[in-house]
From TrEMBL:
Residues 19-46 form the Stability determinant domain. This is Antitoxin. Pfam families: PaaA2. It comes from the Bacteria. Residues 1-20 are annotated as: Disordered. It comes from Advenella kashmirensis. InterPro entries: PaaA2_dom.
Length: 63
């Protein structure tokens, strides 16, 4: 693992294992996203869609 070092004596083996498990899971999620064959959606397109959706929800709560 990149950037690992020996934990301080007060850090339990459980927390180290938990961190290692999370790191493996996180890296697998990132790799799966990179490997996903579906086309990426540009950030600006998602932002516009979300702003529209939020505005619609605000209107619904005023009724």
């Amino acid at each position: 693992m990149v950037g690992t070092k020996t934990p301080a004596p007060h850090v339990s083996k459980f927390s180290t294992q938990e961190a290692d498990n999370h790191d493996r899971w996180f890296r697998a999620e990132i790799q799966a996203a990179i490997n996903d064959p579906h086309p990426s959606i540009p950030h600006d397109q998602i932002r516009t869609k979300m702003h529209t959706r939020i505005a619609e929800l605000k209107l619904d709560t005023k009724r």
